[in-house]
Amino acid sequence: MSNAIVVGSGPNGLAAAVTLARQGFEVTVLEAADNIGGGTRTGELTVPGVRHDHCSAVHPLGAASPFLRSLPLRRHGLEWLWPEIDVAHPLDSGSAGVLVGSPADTASGLGVDGPVWRALFEPLASGVDDGVTEDIMRPVLHAPKHPVHLARFGLRAVQPAAVLAHRWRTDEARGLFAGVAAHVTHPLTRPVSSAVGLMMTSTGHRFGWPVARGGSSAITGALAGLLTEAGGTIETGVRVRSFAELPPAEVVMLDLPPREAATILGDRLPARIRRAYTRYRRAPAAFKVDLAVEGGVPWRNEACRRAGTVHLGGTFAEIAAAERDAYRGRMPERPFVLVAQQYLADPGRSSGDVHPVWSYAHVPHGYTGDATGAVLDQFERFAPGVRERIVASSVRSTADLERENPNYAGGDIIIGANTALQLAMRPRVAVDPYRTGVPGVFLCSAATPPGGGVHGMCGFNAARSALRSLRTAR
């Protein structure tokens, strides 16, 4: 029987492990922490009985993932739950842009911009239905299965988000798109900055923005259950510092950032690939603030009170300015803040009338200050009186995030800047970006295509690369 070692038990490491185990490999996963999951851990961070996701929280790409959808994960405890409203984007006027259901449903609430929203996203959402997600979630250099739909997406995705936003006239529509586009964690005036916003909006229109019942840890818990069922094993508390520490294996999968992979592989790594790995650019950071809020957040806009995800940042111009500042190393006065109210879809995360509210702000990479006040100011801006409802809070700085998960160097939770080059070719320019140049060793982290998010496609794609390599060698 062939054997494989997987270093790291985040969603991508487990995805690679499951893919290989289902092909008959004897798989061992090595995890440095005491618990599996990487960014998909869940726990009581504030008060007993109130469950918070440590990092990942809402999963439009998880629900859309061709890999995750192909697996019997429900049998191992994964259940998706949907809020009444997917996304709300409040403005100072008290109005909000609202993403809900189909493009037509969303368009009905966007006034004069509704027809333009529908004209853009109906064909893209239709492409998601027809399977174009699989093409988008693979390396750029491949023969597409759905070339027409992929071309339609690509022609828009290469545009800066700021250019695409000119399609709309109202602050509600422009702000709604800005909030989703800002998940790229990159200046919205740069080329290809539309790509993430288009992808997440299109898949959201098709699959919604769900949460996992009980917390994001249910996703990796289900993957671990499937791996165990297929004969694989997981060892926690095992930190790998050198390739020499690993037992012999036909395949080694590294769910690690490129620089860490280069450290472990040492002189085995070809010089040109080492240069690419060490030059790999990291993204701006997250500064995380978890709240236990009695009675929930008193949003001024009613749609925000029913939305699983709320984006705080104001107009498109304000968000673009904040993202530009964070990218340039300046702390924005009013940072873009992502908020998740998972308890609306999953009430079991609350304790009585005390509810978990998840949030983080985009801040400069390695930011050493305290952004708590700036985050709470953004809450208060759109939900006056929220401070009086906070029962407890848990704050994690960029250094705290890195300490908890070394993959999050400098607080970068998406494992790499989404520059035009790195969005298209990460972690290096290559036909097969998962190969490290060391025989039998493959990179499977979010530093490989298609990038950040809990979808498992980086691990799945890397495992398929390993399988192709073995077939060729034999």
TrEMBL record:
InterPro entries per UniProt: FAD/NAD-bd_sf
Domain of life: Bacteria
The protein, known as: Phytoene dehydrogenase-like protein
Organism listed in the record: Halopolyspora algeriensis
